Amino acid sequence: MTGTNRNAENRRTTIYDIAQLSSASPSAVSAILNGSWKKRRIAKATAERVIEIAEREGYARNLQASALRRERSNVIGMIMPKYDNRYFGAIAEQFEARARQRGLFPIITCTERDPDLEVEAAREMIGYRVEHVIATGATDPDRIARTCAAAGVRTLNLDLPGREAPSVISDNYAGARELTALILDRVGTDNGPLLFVGGRAADHNTGARIRGFRDEHAERGIELPDSHVLTCGYASEKARKALDDLDFELPGALFVNSTISLEGVVRWLRANKRRTLFGCFDWDPFAALLEDNVGMVRQDVSAMVSAIFDRLDTPLDDREEVRVPCILCHPGETDGDGAS
């Protein structure tokens, strides 16, 4: 039976089909396709012939079935909240690269910050016998950890911390203080407090950034009214509306909590023919070139993902929280991993 006929019958190519086409035994074909043919002392010419036929016939190994026959699946999963900025895109790219370096097959799913979707995704990954689940920016990381623990699967938290698994996060507090200090130095303390725009007050990361923002004002003896912290969400339109709703004069400079919010801020400033200095806890190469940009905080994605993979083999009762320092980028700098 030819490959064309099998395709016409809409039947998946099997090891036995490849064995027949290559004149090799099914066990030899299996060894060649799983990479153990050298240990079996199978001739290189035979291996090359089998691989060529497998590629030509569109053979795809059934990873789930294969995993059931092995002690390890070599699959690692990541739950991702969004793909809407450079930060999460950079995390996904680094995750895939590091996984393959360790001989692991990476799978990623986006859950749109929906806690029910997060758990559903974790259960699906468990069904494919993933060895680890990395919960990135999860809204309820502990629920994911409990779901995975019940199936004997290890979880680790990235970007947002949890109480029931190791966590690797940015040092949001220190990064926010540094950025606030930079903006205040540029605008001058005589011009009053800055305006904080973007994020959700209940979010761990936003909360830490607000503390850093407040503490730097307090350190300089600058009174910061609650009205100067606009936790309006991340969406650009929400940032625009928050600025529209101000009942006081726009301050001399802004602390913007993400590049998503920054888009709305810039649109509002242009629409109202206003100019003001700003800094952003987020990094983007184009936003870094804007004329009124004082500086941006870039989260060190490479260091964060490295720290996660360093902890794959730590004891199961490990609950360590690792805080990775952020990088303060000055105007015109265009080298970086991404943004959050």
From TrEMBL:
It comes from the Bacteria. PROSITE patterns: HTH_LACI_2 (PS50932). Residues 13-70 form the HTH lacI-type domain. SMART domains: HTH_LACI. Keywords: DNA-binding, Repressor, Transcription, Transcription regulation. Transmembrane segments: none annotated. One of its GO terms (molecular function) is DNA-binding transcription factor activity. InterPro entries: HTH_LacI, Lambda_DNA-bd_dom_sf, Peripla_BP_I, SBP_2_dom. Pfam families: LacI, Peripla_BP_4. This is Transcriptional regulator, LacI family. It comes from Tranquillimonas alkanivorans. The lineage of its organism: Bacteria, Pseudomonadati, Pseudomonadota, Alphaproteobacteria, Rhodobacterales.
